[in-house]
Automatic annotation (TrEMBL):
The keyword Phosphoprotein does not apply. It comes from Cellulophaga fucicola. Residues 157-275 form the BioF2-like acetyltransferase domain. Keywords: Transferase. This is Acetyltransferase (GNAT) domain-containing protein. Pfam families: Acetyltransf_6 (PF13480). The keyword Endoplasmic reticulum does not apply. Transmembrane segments: none annotated. InterPro entries: Acyl_CoA_acyltransferase, BioF2-like_GNAT_dom. Signal peptide: none annotated. It comes from the Bacteria. GO terms for molecular function: transferase activity. The lineage of its organism: Bacteria, Pseudomonadati, Bacteroidota, Flavobacteriia, Flavobacteriales.
């Protein structure tokens, strides 16, 4: 069981209901001591509150069902199989049909004294070396700091971080040319509204990586007694050469181990980084609990099961990714706005043909990734670098560090 599950807390459920079920009431049944429900649109199924906005729930079933729960069908989303949900008793008239929907990934931390030990035992020597190298290079080239906002934060600071959080997500998924469900206005408003009170209750946290005063990676975490749930994660794609996401995970694992957290749960959905870091995989299941003595309940169960099995089939065929790409294209009607041509000639241009640019001017944002790529490859520091426009060559730029120089060509097709 997940004890003190943040996604079943009063704060989380109350906020979720206010954002997603304006005119519906929460309903409880003695059959499910841990859960509450609402009626589906067609009134045939009772669905657990919070639906897919949780990162995993567990539940128990009472030994005896009350008359109020007879002849009903219940749909329970995102059942976390690693933490052993109790099944219905054999002599109960209620039965469960389960459908696997997503893989889950989990880091088991309780037997490790440090993140260094975790990495040495979990990762290959080559990966261990590379990941530590990424972190050293990042901290060498930039003025990097890390902060876990957990238990206390001013509302002003919170608002500022969530604004930066959203901008980084938009930037990330514009680059991927995909829609992201978290950025749906209704869903984002919910996360913004619910996270602040949960952070004060120590049921949520924002882990932020800064370059000086600028947030460049943010992770929203939720907490039970022993588990840190990775809820939403993003990093600034301009820092991609430094594998900023990898360093963020290293620092979060370090924090979890130091603070007695037994599990860092990457939750549902496959990403390569989850598979690499996790010690174990599990499944997210949807459970359909139905009255086996009711014809209507049994038919409803079969229809619901067929629907979700079909969705899972489409997901296995990667149809969901194509769908996200299509919806992005329909909403934005844009393509990636840049192309680059690598330049082999690193000879210094004539000084008279150089016009210095401010690296952090908004007009030059499209050039940051090339500056950062230069920093990574040449182990230069951002404070020592100058960026120039080569005035006698269209779309050519020149970067000069303490020890190295390079030229490159970049188009900004938004101009």
């Amino acid at each position: 069981m997940i004890h003190n599950n943040p996604f079943l807390s009063k704060t989380f459920i109350k906020k979720w209901l206010s954002h997603f079920l304006d005119d519906q009431k929460e309903v409880s049944f003695n059959l499910f001591p841990d859960l509450s429900f609402f009626k589906s649109a067609k009134k045939l199924v009772y669905i657990n509150t919070a639906k897919t906005n949780t990162k995993g729930i567990t539940y128990t079933i009472a030994k005896e069902e009350s008359n109020t729960s007879l002849k009903k069908t219940f749909l329970i989303y995102d059942v976390h199989t690693f933490f052993n949900t109790q099944s219905v008793l054999n002599n109960s008239r209620y039965k469960i049909k389960k459908t696997i929907q997503y893989p889950g990934y989990l880091c088991e931390l309780e037997n490790f004294l440090s993140v260094k030990e975790y990495m040495q035992k979990r990762l290959s020597k080559n990966s261990n070396y590379k990941f530590n190298l990424y972190k050293r290079k990042l901290e060498h080239s930039f003025d990097i700091s890390y902060n876990m906002y957990y238990g206390t934060i001013t509302k002003e600071k919170y608002n500022s971080l969530f604004s930066a959080f959203k901008k980084l997500l938009i930037k990330r998924f514009n680059d991927k040319q995909e829609t992201n469900n978290n950025l749906d206005p209704k869903e984002w408003d919910f996360y913004f509204d619910v996270t602040y009170p949960m952070l004060l209750e120590k049921k949520a946290a924002l882990f932020v990586t800064y370059n000086k005063e600028t947030p460049i990676a943010i992770t929203l975490l939720n907490f039970s007694d022993t588990i840190a749930f990775d809820t939403i994660r993003v990093f600034d794609i301009d820092y991609s050469p430094f594998r900023l996401g990898t360093t963020s995970i290293i620092k979060q694992l370090d924090w979890c181990i130091a603070n007695g957290i037994k599990f860092l749960d990457f939750s549902k959905g496959y990403y390569e980084y989850k598979e690499r870091w996790a010690t174990t995989t599990y499944n997210f299941e949807y459970h359909i609990v139905y009255d086996s003595k009711s014809i209507v309940s049994k038919i409803t169960m079969h229809i619901t099961l067929l629907f979700f099995n079909f969705k899972n089939y489409l997901r296995d065929k990667n149809i969901h990714k194509k769908f996200h790409q299509l919806t992005f294209a329909l909403k934005n009607n844009t393509k990636k706005t840049e192309k680059t041509v690598p330049v082999k000639n690193n000879t210094s241009p004539v000084k008279e043909n150089l016009k210095e640019l401010s690296i952090f001017d908004v007009k030059n944002e499209h050039l940051l990734k090339y500056v950062y790529d230069f920093l990574y490859k040449k182990s230069e520091k951002l404070n020592d670098v100058r960026l120039y426009k080569i005035t006698n060559q269209q779309n050519y730029y020149y970067i000069k560090g303490l020890q190295n120089v390079t030229t490159f060509m970049a188009y900004n097709l938004e101009e």
